[in-house]
Amino acid sequence: MTEEPEESLEARLKRLGEDIKSKRPDVSDGAERRAEESRKGYAAAMKLSSEFIAGIVVGAFLGYLLDHFAGTGPWGMIVLLLLGFCAGVLNVLRSAGVVATTDQRKGGPGTDKKDGDGA
């Protein structure tokens, strides 16, 4: 036992690390990519669902306020709830890229249109 205890511990720690690496299964890049895609899909689903629910909640809240202060009965809630539903669907379609936003229709900063013809 001519080795110092610190060197002995370092050598044993190095061997232990190598043993752990050899027994641990390799995580392939494919599995990591699938996990990343899954996280991206989950984030997109949460974004779309929150935009849809927000439209409905805002419509219902505004309808409730209209009914409360104007005394219109359930009609304000019904009409604005339906409008909120439509706004939520439109927000989801815009976020998904199915419907063009107002900037894209006018040739705003989010478009690829070139102003080469001077119009």
The stretches of 5 or more residues where confidence is low (pLDDT under 50) are none
Helix and strand pattern? HHHH
Largest sheet, if any?
none
Q: Which percent bin holds the helix content?
A: over 70%
- What structural category do the secondary elements indicate? mainly alpha
Provide a count of the helices.
4
What is the percentage of strand-forming residues? under 5%
**Distance N terminus to C terminus?**
89 Å
Q: What is the domain tally?
A: 1
Number of strands: 0
- Which radius of gyration do the C-alpha atoms yield? 30 Å
**General shape:** elongated
- Integer average pLDDT: 83
Structure report:
This protein has 119 residues and is mainly alpha-helical. It has one domain (11-96). The chain has 4 helices and no strands. The protein has helices at residues 5-23, 29-70, 75-96, 102-106. Helix 2 packs antiparallel against helix 3. The longest helix has 42 residues, at 29-70. 7% of the residues are buried. Belongs to the bacterial AtpI family. A possible function for this protein is to guide the assembly of the membrane sector of the ATPase enzyme complex.
Please outline the helices and strands.
Layout: H1 5-23, H2 29-70, H3 75-96, H4 102-106
Q: What characteristics describe this protein?
A:
ion transport, 4 helices, 119 residues, transport, ATP synthase protein I, transmembrane, mainly alpha, hydrogen ion transport, elongated
In short:
This is ATP synthase protein I. The chain has 119 residues and is mainly alpha-helical.
